[in-house]
Amino acid sequence: MNTTWGILFLLILRIAAIPAAAEQLTVEDTFAIAEHTSYYKISLSTGGYGEVAPRITGYIPATITFDTETLQVSNSGIRDGAKIEWSIFGFNIYSDIMYENIGTIRTNVAMQFNDLKLEVSVKDGSVRINPETREMNTDDLQLLTNSGSVWLALEVDGTFESDSVDLQQNPTVLPLTKAPKLKIERIKDDIYGYQYDISFDLTSDETGSEKLEGTNITLNTGENVRLVARLSHEKESPFGQWHRFNQYYYDGDELDSKSPAGIPMYLAFALGHEHYQSSHQRPFYFTTYEDETYFGVVCPFRRADVQIEYSTDLSTGSWKPKPIE
After folding, report:
1. At 247, phi and psi to the nearest 5?
2. Residues 141-154: pLDDT tens digits?
3. Is the pLDDT score of 131 beyond 50?
4. Residue 50 is inside which H or E element, if any?
5. Are 318 and 312 in contact (CB under 8 A)?
6. Spatial separation of the C-alpha atoms in residues 119 and 80, rounded to whole Å
7. In whole angstroms, what is the distance from residue 271 CA to residue 298 CA?
8. I want to staple 151 with a disulfide (CB 3.0 to 4.6 A). Which of 81, 112, 137, 185 is the partner?
9. What is the mean pLDDT of residues 237-258?
């Protein structure tokens, strides 16, 4: 048997597959309001009802650190600049109201909210999260209306009165009665890369009532709001980047797909081969120097662990690793 071919049949190249270890991944980005439902209603006990559904937009810059295997969050924070904005909305209702010492008069009540903005901030830099429910601690968050205005008008028996409040001059801290939830969903995590969908889910479902002094009516208010701020975080792995540029040189997308030279895709990647480099068509070569035959591996740089094993008789259990020099 030719010496070169004898060696060829007694050697094998093998890629040592090492599973990716779980790690702590930190995502620092801006979450945009992707979904929202909002209903505000007002009614008077003597009749008159109004309901509006304003449009809500905004963004929340945040930092989230979580385990890529368990998805458990170890740290989270909302950075400066988070804003939630409402489109202009208002109410205009009529009711027969009985005023003390005056009598019952047809009254028009109008309210309008202009350029209302809500600022979301973290009191002490980070937000505590319940690892089981993924609920954020409401004591760590602050909601502040510090932009826009509220206009209120009453028309009673032809007499018109109005007033307005500038929220920039009179900022208001809003109570957060329901804990926002943080959700992390693994869309993909394989040799090509990873993608996680991360979202904040904020809901508010509040009702209230107030007896208006000097009248016979009770003002009832209701709020039902749900906001979902979402971010899709993805990244290609080194193999995914390599595959995107080299996949067309192989007869399929599976790891054992071969090039025209018969080289499996996973082996070409591990050895640093690129399809446009003709000198890399073969993964190994033989050369003779001073009557000794040498086995060489074409490896511009290693992207994964490669192990060479040898055997003298090809029998099971006879293969032994050969150190790479």
Report:
1. -60, -30
2. 888 888 999 998 98
3. yes
4. strand 49-52
5. yes
6. 9
7. 7
8. 112
9. 87
